[in-house]
Amino acid sequence: MRKLRGIVIAFGLLLCLTATSVSAEVNVGIGISLPNVSIGINLPLFPQLVVVPGYPVYYAPDVATNYFFYDGLYWVYQDNSWYASNWYNGPWWTVDPWDLPVFILRIPVRYYRYPPPYFRGWRHDEPPRWGLHWGPQWEQQRKGWNRWNRQAVPPRAPLPSYQRQYSGERYPQQAEQQQRLHQQHYRYQPRTKTVRQQYQQQQQQRDEQQPRRYDTQPESIQQPPTRPDKVWQEQPQPRSPQQQQPPAVKQPPPVKQGLPAGPEVQQRYPAQPSYQQRGPAPAEQRPQGKEQRWQPNQGPEQKQERGFGR
């Protein structure tokens, strides 16, 4: 009876341990699949990077992981996965084995500070046998990765030494701040096509994560602004003092008194009636006779006696 009870207790403990290990593996797997993950690396200072002889690669002998620098990026091989970052302490993103640069694959085994168990038995002065690890399909796709002219090695990328001043609490945590500082202080452009693709993918992911500035604004602000040249055409232009004065009326040339105006002057400037004449007809139309004097309150009989009724 006691033996049976001990078997049941041992079986229960085994089930608990199995469930705990399975849940831990699931959590790690989910964390690795996410972009910009934390892989447990916490460097208080900028690491010491040493040149790998004959390769355009640096390695970090004092970091407790397989830590490298190549073509403007930091590279880490940990838990059978490759990670990359443009800052020495992350955050990191995963890199698919199909997209790894060839000189990362060619790093000799001796420069892996913490090599995985399946590296045992491989030559230390040769690169790892990635074809055995990732399978024949990968080997066929990346055929020729371990053959190159060792006399024609590309130059090494300069180290981003500006990051030495960002340590401890000064280390930027936000991806936008890291990107801004990196663009200001590090002008190197990657030479490798796969590294350029990594830069572009990370930039695209940051742009998708950032909200648009006009998503939360009203519709009136979302409309495109009026073109400046169109507004300039619609606005009236200021006039000069000469343009603001009304046009001068063209006056006829003066005519000498006592001489009639010529036919050209009469045709271009016809005589206009004068609105100031309110008296009797001109002198040549008046009847000749006794001088007319105005007298108030003259009746019709008086006018006829003096000749005005004719």
Can you describe what's shown?
The protein has 310 residues and is an alpha+beta fold. It has a domain at 40-163 and 174-208. Helices cover 33% and strands 7% of the residues. It is built from eleven helices and six strands. The protein has helices at residues 2-33, 102-105, 130-134, 136-141, 175-185, 193-209, 219-222, 228-234, 241-244, 263-268, 300-305, and strands at residues 50-51, 58-59, 66-70, 73-78, 81-85, 93-95. A hairpin with a 2-residue loop joins strand 3 (66-70) and strand 4 (73-78). The chain is extended and about 125 Å long. It starts with a helix and ends in a 5-residue tail after the last helix. 13% of the residues are buried. Residues 16-34, 212-222 and 227-234 have low confidence and may be disordered.
Distance between the termini: 168 Å
- Alpha-beta content class: alpha+beta
Level of helix content? 25-40%
Strand content: 5-15%
- How many helices? The count is 11
Strand numbers in spatial order across the main sheet: 1-2-3-4-5-6
**Biggest sheet details:** 6 strands, antiparallel
* Rg from alpha-carbon coordinates: 51 Å
User: Average pLDDT across residues?
Assistant: 73
Number of strands: 6
**Poorly predicted spans:** 16-34, 212-222, 227-234
Overall 3D form: extended
Series of H and E elements: HEEEEEEHHHHHHHHHH
